[in-house]
Each structure stands twice: as C-alpha cells, then as structure tokens.
Design brief:
277 residues; Rossmann fold; two-stranded antiparallel sheet; single chain; globular
Amino acid sequence: MSQIRVRSTAEQVREAAKAIRRRNVEMIHAARNGHIGGDLSAADILATLYMAVLNVDPEHPDDPERDRYIQSKGHASGVLYATLAAAGFIPDELLDTYMAEGSPLNGHPDRNKVPGVETNTGPLGHGLPVAVGTAIAARLDGSPRRTFVLCGDGELQEGSNWEAIMAAGHRGLDNLVAIVDRNGLQQGARTEETNALDPLDAKFAAFGWAVREIDGNDVDALLRTFSEVPFTPGRPSCVIARTIKGRGVSFIEDRVEWHHKVPTDEQAADALEELAP
C-alpha cells in the first residue's frame, strides 16, 4: 500500500479507506484471528483522521506537540495497524506478521512496540479516561495539541467511561474529541438488546458535551465535522458516528457473528473482490 498523503482530498481519503479495508481482510485471513466487523466499520474514520485531520508526523512520532489519537476499542487493532502502515508509521510488510508469535502487532496495540500507538488499549473503558488525561495535560502545558479518541458503542456500557465523560464536561475540555463507532452491534448481540445506550446524544449533552451525530462511513461528513471541532468553545466534542459493522463487504455487513470471525479462503477472495479498486 502506498503511503497516504497528509491533508488529502475526500476522494483520496475514500481510496485509502478502501485500501485499508483490503489490507485488513488480508491480515485477518492470514492470522486466522481478529475482529473484522469492527475494523471495517471504523476504516473511514481512521483514514479521515490520519489523512486529513491529525497533526502527526511518521518521521517524528514522539513530537511532544503532536495531536493524540487513542483507539479505545483496542480489539480493532487490525484497522489501526493497516492505517499506521498507510500513513508511514510502520512498514507495510510488517502487517504480514499480524498476531504471529514474536510480532509487535499484537491483538491489542502496544505503545512500547508500535510507533504511533499512544497508549495500550483493549480492556474496554480505558481509552476515554486516558484521553481525558492527555487533554488535561495539554491544557496544563498551554499546548494547542488535541486528543481524539475512538470508542466502541458497546464499550460505553463500562462505567469508567461515564466518570471520564463527566470529568471532561466539568473541566470544559474543548481540546478533546470523542468519536463513538455507533455500529449498533457488540459481541453476541445488538447494543440495545444488551444494555440500551440511546438516547446517546442526550446523555453526552447532559454531561456538558457538544454533540454531532453523522454518518460515520461518509467521508465528506467526517471531513466537515472534524473541521468544525470544537463544536462549542469550552465544551468537549462528541461525534456519534453511525456506521455499519463490516462496512464494504456485503456478507459481513451488520452481522453479529462477524464481530470475531475469520473469513475462509473463499470468503476472503470474495471480500477482496468486493473491495477491489
């Protein structure tokens, strides 16, 4: 995959998202492991952030003034690694070792092993609290750097998130953007059948956040929305990104069993055909 270009056009972002999805399918098929449904739902979000939004530099991944991106839904590591490779943080060939013994590309991302990973995630409910801390640190430093955090919707059933949401609203962290990958599915069932989240927008707003709800698989909507953060000065921003789990592969889309399922050889070939350039 060619390295993606910073501040790319909407069409370039869409092309990169499709390429990231293809690479993700290849990785999970080869590893015989992964979370393909949630990876595919988030690909447009990650491609948009890394191509056109985040102030990050793969040549200087530890620049103290870089924006922070934290992927709280760390089980969706495949899409993060594919995006980091596309953005130039890691070599593309390293993706072929995904989840292999001794590979730095674990099932959950490790900041000590992978450039561009800001914090270790996977246990759900941790990423958003860490993101609140990084936003507070930026404010204490008088820095313009921003923190973006991607949460799964099922993950919001963890109480630690709501403590963090309350703290962020109280502190008026308008340098913080929480993105909810609202695909409506979690492992085993739909979120609303497991522990209802809606009205999610009203819940964030009640804690002092400015909220936008958009189509999270629409690159134009993502670009427009991220260009407008903070939505309200003095308030953290929440983007409820309505996505389709398994987006881009017809037989995976909106199917709960593909939360943690591996495609067969035939299914992988069919998926790659659907995702062809």
